[in-house]
Amino acid sequence: MLKLYHCDISKMSDEDFLNAYIKSDESRKAKADKLRKKPAKKLSIAAGELVRNAVANEFNIEKDDIRFRVGKNGKPYIEGISVHFSISHSKNIAVCAISDRPVGIDIEFIRDVNLNVAKRQFAPDELKYVFEKWDLSKKRFFEIWTRKEAYVKLLGKSISYFPNFSVMGNNKIETHIRNRYIVSIAK
Q1: Is 147 helix (H, G, I), strand (E, B) or coil?
Q2: What is the pLDDT of residues 130-165, one digit of tens each?
Q3: Is 179 left (phi over 0), alpha (psi -120 to 50) or beta?
Q4: What integer pLDDT is reported at residue 25 of this predicted model?
Q5: Which of 41, 79, 107, 109 sits a CA distance of 20 to 30 A from 90?
Q6: Looking at the predicted structure, is the pLDDT value of residue 67 above 90?
Q7: What is the largest distance, in Å, between two alpha-carbon atoms of the chain?
Q8: pLDDT at position 70, please?
Q9: CA nearest to 156, candidates 72, 78, 70, 44
């Protein structure tokens, strides 16, 4: 089973944000509290609320009964429920994948980026792909970035692991491009 959910936080009122913040677990509140700008705080809280709603819907349980915990390498899990999940957010969109097996998801809004980051984080074949068509380099950067991010989330590792592997040819990662967003799911 793999289910995907998304939400647009531009539709979240300040009252909805406050209610979701109050009901959020302490680790999600702490993440949001570290962010300086209100839209970023809203996005972080909305992502947590999205996974809470998804799990409540899939398992027919009350949202208030869901308890998040943090496991090895900081990977979150839900106490007492055998479910795997991954969340991500970018610009106004939060996404969530829930599954009966480990899963990773990442979303990025295609925007200007310092492509020197690729030189430090990408494998040689990934670099070739990003830079071989200059007019596509930004899009290709985020295509590789979301694939790598989804994969490290699947493995329960951090982005410091990025230079250690290539996602080129990895058929366990799906990538979808819609409007100016790129979403990758690793399963």
Answers
A1: helix
A2: 999 988 999 999 999 999 999 999 998 888 889 889
A3: left
A4: 82
A5: 79
A6: no
A7: 50
A8: 81
A9: 72
